[in-house]
Amino acid sequence: MTIGVVSITLIQLTVAISAILLGNRAGLMTGFVWGLLSFIRSWTSPSSPLEVLMFHNPFIAILPRVLVGLLAGIAYNMVSKRKNDILAASVSGLVASVTNTVLVLGLSAFFFIGLHTTMGTVSGTNGFGSY
C-alpha cells in the first residue's frame, strides 16, 4: 500500500511465517526472494521516488529481508522451547517487523548521509560539525 511517498509493506510478516512454518533456512530463502523482487521492482515499476532512492541499493533491498527470515526463525525457536507457540509466533512477528524497519531505515541513513554531505556545500569530513 502506498500513502504519498511512503510504501507500507507486509513482506516481513510473510518471511516470518515461512521461517516459523518451514524453518530458518526457508525463512532466509524467502527473505532473499522478497528482497530480490523489491530490488527488481525498484528498477522496473517503482511506486514512489523514495522507493527508487532506497531500493536501488541491493544492501537496502535484500539484506534486511534475508536477516528478517533468519532472526524471526531464531526468535521463534528460542521462545517456543520455553513458552507456547502463540507467544513464540507473536515474538517472531515483532522481531521481523522491528528488524526490517531498523535495517531499512538504518542502512538508508548510512548510505545517504555520505551522499548528502558530498553533494551539498558541506564536505564529507564536516558532515556533522561546523561549516
Q: What does this 3D model show about the protein?
A:
There is one protein chain. By secondary structure, the protein is mainly alpha-helical. Helices cover 76% and strands 3% of the residues. The protein contains 6 helices and 2 strands, in the order ββαααααα. A two-stranded antiparallel ribbon has the order 1-2. α1 (11-22) packs antiparallel against α2 (24-44), α1 (11-22) packs across α6 and α5 runs antiparallel to α6. The longest helix has 35 residues, at 85-119. It is elongated and about 45 Å long. The termini are far apart.
List keywords for this structure.
131 residues, mainly alpha, elongated
Briefly summarize what is shown.
This protein is mostly helical and 131 residues long.
**Main sheet makeup:** 2 strands, antiparallel
Instruction: Evaluate the radius of gyration.
Output: 17 Å
Alpha carbon gap, first and last residue:
40 Å
How do the SSEs run, as a string of H and E? EEHHHHHH
By helix and strand content, what is the structural category? mainly alpha
As laid out across the biggest beta sheet, the strand order is 1-2
- Helical percent range? over 70%
Q: How many helix segments?
A: 6
Number of strands: 2
**Average pLDDT score:** 80
Poorly predicted ranges (pLDDT <50, ≥5 residues)?
none
**In percent terms, what proportion of residues is strand?**
under 5%
Using the alpha-carbon principal axes, give the shape. Answer: elongated
